[in-house]
Design a protein that fits this description.
single chain, 86 residues, 58% helix, elongated
């Protein structure tokens, strides 16, 4: 591999390992679609599922880890009210 010696010198071993994992787990887009579809199977509406995926994407971006999802949903998350009651 081209980076095998240079990776250590450049201190990018973790980045190289991450790149090697992409063909096995897929890209962020693949993970988003997989998560969306699993949420739909558990009864979330398209709008709710997109909202859940958006929250996961934001949290994953902040954490720097797109594989952490807390596991597959075991049941639909509790429905949140759209607005606070007056």
């Amino acid at each position: 591999m081209v980076f095998s010696n240079g990776g250590t010198a450049l201190r990018i071993e973790d980045d190289i390992q991450h790149l090697k994992s992409i063909p096995k787990r897929g890209t962020s887009a693949h993970l988003q679609l997989e998560y969306f579809r699993s949420l739909r199977k558990f009864g979330r509406s398209p709008r709710e599922a997109i909202g859940d995926v958006t929250k996961w994407l934001r949290t994953s971006t902040e954490a720097g880890d797109f594989t952490a999802r807390g596991g597959e949903p075991k049941a639909p998350p509790a429905r949140q009210p759209l607005a606070d009651p007056v």
